[in-house]
Amino acid sequence: MDPAAAVTADPGGLLTVRTGQRFAGGFNLSPSLEVELLPGSMLVLFGPSGAGKTTILRQIAGLERPDEGTIRFGADVWCDVARQRWRPPQERRVGVVFQEPTLFPHL
């Protein structure tokens, strides 16, 4: 669960992630991230294996729903669990490139 990934989004905006995810074995991930994404900028997450980097990226891209919290980009609410709001991945204009090929495993 430690593939390198890149995130891109609409130019300019404040990305706010305050989510929670519960995992087997009692591990809870509760990231709180607020970063301004400028046109042409890049966001990099790094940390030890199993720290939750891929989970955060999957939540931002809309590939995984958090158990609690919100994800916002600028004024757009992409996810608000309490209010049952969910913007589908295709409407977020975010891309994630995983280290391991998952769509075409033969390549």
Helix count equals 1
Structural class: mainly beta
Helix residue percentage = under 10%
What is the gyration radius calculated from CA atoms? 14 Å
Number of domains: 1
How many runs of DSSP E, i.e. beta strands?
Answer: 8
List the SSEs and their pairings.
Elements: E1 7-8, E2 13-22, E3 28-29, E4 32-37, H1 53-61, E5 68-73, E6 76-80, E7 85-86, E8 95-96
Antiparallel strand pairs: 1-8, 2-3, 2-4, 2-5, 5-6, 6-7
Q: TL;DR?
A:
This protein has 107 residues and is mainly beta.
Overview of this protein structure:
The protein has one domain: 3-Layer(aba) Sandwich (Rossmann fold), CATH 3.40.50.300. 8% of the residues lie in helices and 33% in strands. The chain has one helix at residues 53-61, and strands at residues 7-8, 13-22, 28-29, 32-37, 68-73, 76-80, 85-86, 95-96. The chain is globular, with a radius of gyration of 14 Å. Strand 2 and strand 3 (28-29) form a beta hairpin.
List the defining traits of the structure above:
single chain, about 110 residues, mainly beta, Rossmann fold, six-stranded antiparallel beta sheet, two-stranded antiparallel sheet, 1 helix, 8 strands, about 10% helix, globular, disordered N terminus
